[in-house]
Write a structure and sequence with these properties.
The structure holds two protein chains of two kinds. Chain A is α/β, with parallel strands linked by helices. Chain A has five helices and six strands. In chain A, strands 1, 2, 3, 4, 5 and 6 form a six-stranded mixed beta sheet that branches. Chain B folds into two domains: about 400 residues, Na+/H+ antiporter like fold (Up-down Bundle); about 190 residues, Rossmann fold (3-Layer(aba) Sandwich), CATH 3.40.50.720. In chain B, the strands form three sheets. A six-stranded parallel beta sheet of chain B has the order 3-2-1-4-5-6, with helices on both faces. A four-stranded antiparallel beta sheet of chain B has the order 7-12-10-11. Chain B has a two-stranded antiparallel sheet with strand order 8-9. The chains are: A alpha/beta, B alpha/beta. At the A-B interface, helix 2, helix 3 and helix 4 of A face helix 24 and strand 10 of B.
Chain lengths: ~110, ~575
């Protein structure tokens, strides 16, 4: 798994590549927590190059979303491939998080 | 005796008892082997740490209380419904078995060891009982046919009470040789009648108290213990040892109650019973005089063999004549008759009484009984499993799945599990839902799983895992609560339909099943996706690479792992360690 973080007009964009599973999720969680601790309130997680997500990965997103909500911030997810989109749909994640098709869509109105 | 020595003996007996149970469970061997071993080693014959021979009065009282608890707990575990499956053999064994066993053993001991008729008959009476404390764990380890299991369970518990009454009457007869046979039979029947009546009344009292909130919940277990011990004492006070039947019948009646609190009571009594058995066995074993056992030499070995290979077979073949049991099943019953705590406790008590009465050859009684306990427990305990296999009386493995909730997803799972040779049954309470499964030729039942008749109809003999797959998380939790009770806490799984369900991980842990599959999934959404072909449930064979298993592009997550002929439910955060899976994929 690889994580890159960029800044787009005050919004932190986190791109996660590869697998987000039991093995890799602690790293992802640490990076997201660091950004939130540093004061970031608007986060977009771009899953364009994410191949696989497990429940451990979903929990990382859920935790970050809760933390941001507590800081009046928001977490948005974008660019899911069809496998990850299905996982989001059948686990109910699409109904609770803001999920957009593209990154510009996610940035809109942030 | 100094209180320090009493405390040392009791504390050490408790410690060694628990240690023996721990070692036995780790080594998967009958605990009685270690209880006896530890007792003998810590006793006066070897280390002299247990002053049990000086504690006769305390041990006598402990035996009485312990036996009452063991029989009450044993009675509670009996299910009257189960009696219907093999009534004739059980009734014959209970009614005629003790007399046949006692008579045969008495004759063998009289002629082989040259014992007087009194001691021979008394030893025979004591050895009529097989121990529930040995049989029950043995049957938990060795899975035998349900019919045989019922026969052995009923025999071990009911014959304990009947046999105990027989022992007391025989003792009475032996110690008052001037009494007529008619009077002795009268005493026996009188004690039986008294035990039945007081047992029935105690049972009725418990059935009145337990479901009503007459006693505070937190005091209920102790109150029941108090009531049964009082009933036991009361019955014994009128006619000695009639209390054994009293507590067995009271336990049997309470055991039939369908009330949530019953499981709690059973759990409490089971723990108490385990503690009692452990402590008593340590104390009794420590009292064994090894010199007495070896005194008789080879004739003693012959006597033991006659008890194992003449008395038991004769009793089983006579009592199972014209029953539904076949020869292989009868041979297994012949082989399994381990004696336990009741025999040990009574032998010690009677030896104390007979010695006090200067009865000749009294020491032989305790020696023979303990030798039989050691031989049967070690020999039969260790060979029960291979013997069951040799005689082909083992129950089929419980590797089947019961899927609760019938829909596309569960039907797809059932088909794939069947392809792996796993028995699968499905159940749903809506008639419309089950048609698809019926068309697919699956074993499906329509009805509410909470209904005992429906459970009976489904047949859980081969089911080892229950999987609740309905769209309602609450229903799934309730189903798993039942599954935990029926199949064990680790055998009930459920889906949770959304990550944001009210059924939290804590609720699952305390009340429901384990979370099935890699993640929480909406059954409704999965079914919609299966219907429109978006998703598939299929068997997947993964390629192994240097980094681990390579997941195909269309792979969502695993549902089951297939490894060495076993199928296990994939759980949250389980690592993939096998290439063969049943998984959910993009269609």
């Amino acid at each position: 798994m690889e994580i890159t973080v960029t800044d787009a007009s005050g919004v932190k964009v986190i791109r996660i590549e590869g697998h987000l599973d039991t093995q890799t999720s602690p790293d992802a969680q640490a990076q997201l927590a660091q950004l939130i601790d540093q004061g970031a309130t608007k986060l977009i997680v771009n899953f364009e190059k994410l191949d696989y997500i497990s429940s451990a990965g979903l929990r990382v997103l859920l935790k970050a979303a809760k933390q941001l909500k507590g800081n009046s911030g928001e977490l948005r997810i974008c660019s899911l491939n069809e496998v990850v989109q299905e996982v989001f749909d059948i686990s109910g994640f699409t109904t609770i998080l803001t999920v957009t098709k593209t990154e510009p869509e996610a940035l809109e109105g942030f | 005796m100094e209180s320090e020595a009493v405390l040392q003996t009791l504390a050490l007996a408790i410690f060694l008892g628990i240690l023996a149970q721990f070692v036995a469970s780790k080594l998967k061997l009958p605990s009685i082997i270690f209880l006896m071993l530890f007792g003998i080693v810590a006793g006066p014959e070897v280390l002299h740490l247990l002053h049990s021979r000086e504690l006769t009065d305390i041990i006598s009282a402990l035996i009485s209380v312990g036996v009452a608890i063991i029989l009450f707990e044993g009675g509670m575990t009996l299910n009257i419904q189960d009696l219907k499956s093999a009534p004739r053999a059980i009734v014959n064994i209970i009614v005629f078995g003790p007399f046949i066993t006692m008579a045969t053993i008495a004759v063998c001991l009289h002629y082989i060891l040259d014992l007087n008729w009194g001691i021979s008959a008394l030893t025979g009476a004591i050895l009529t009982v097989s121990g529930p404390t040995v049989v029950t764990p043995l049957l938990a380890r060795v899975r035998v046919d349900r019919k045989l299991k019922e026969v052995l369970n009923w025999e071990s518990i009911i014959v304990d009470a009947v046999g105990a009454t027989l022992m007391v009457v025989t003792l009475h007869f032996v110690l008052s040789a001037s009494e007529s046979h008619l009077t002795t039979i009268g005493h026996f029947l009188g004690r039986l009648a008294l035990g039945v009546v007081t047992g029935y009344l105690t049972g009725k009292l418990l059935l009145f108290i337990v479901p009503r909130k007459i006693i505070a919940h937190e005091h209920l277990n102790i109150a029941i213990l108090g009531i049964i011990l009082f009933a036991y004492w009361g019955s014994n006070h009128i006619a000695s040892e009639s209390g054994l039947l009293t507590v067995t019948i009271a336990g049997l009646m309470l055991g039939q109650l369908r009330h949530p609190v019953l499981e709690e009571i059973k759990g409490f009594k089971e723990q108490l019973s385990t503690l009692t058995v452990s402590v008593l066995f340590i104390l009794l074993a420590s009292r064994i005089d090894l010199g007495n056992i070896t005194e008789y030499g080879w004739p003693m070995a012959l006597a033991v063999l006659s008890i194992l290979f003449v008395a038991r077979p004769l009793m089983i073949f006579l009592t199972t004549l014209k029953t539904r049991l076949n020869l292989r099943e009868k041979l297994f019953l012949v082989w399994i008759a381990p004696r336990g705590i009741i025999a040990a406790a009574t032998a010690s008590l009677f030896t104390i009484i007979l010695t006090a009465n200067h009865y000749p050859q009294a020491a032989a009684l305790e020696s023979i009984v303990f030798l039989i306990i050691i031989c049967t427990v070690v020999l039969q305990g260790l060979t029960a499993a291979p013997m069951a296999q040799l005689l082909k009386v083992t129950a089929p493995p419980r590797n089947g799945y019961l899927l609760v909730g019938v829909h596309r997803f569960s039907i797809a799972l059932a088909k794939l599990l069947l392809q792996e040779g796993i028995p699968v049954k499905l159940v749903d309470n809506k008639k419309d839902n089950i048609s698809g499964a019926k068309e697919a030729g699956l074993d499906v039942t329509c009805g509410n799983i909470m209904d005992e008749e429906v459970l009976e109809k489904i047949g859980l003999e081969r089911i080892g895992t229950m999987l609740a797959l309905t769209e309602s998380d609450e229903t799934n939790t309730l189903v798993c609560r039942l599954g935990r009770k029926l199949l064990g806490i680790d055998s009930a799984y459920q889906v949770v339909n959304t990550f944001f369900s009210d059924i939290t991980d804590e609720v699952l842990l305390n009340f429901g099943g384990q979370l099935a599959f890699e993640m929480k999934i909406s059954i409704k959404t999965v079914n919609e996706r299966l219907e429109n072909g978006r998703l598939k449930v299929e068997k997947v064979n993964l390629k192994k690479t240097e980094k681990g298993f390579e997941l195909p592009e269309n792979f969502l997550f695993p549902l089951f792992f297939l490894k060495k002929g076993r199928v296990t439910v994939a759980k949250e955060d389980d690592r993939i360690t096998t290439p063969n899976l049943i998984a959910i994929t993009i269609g």
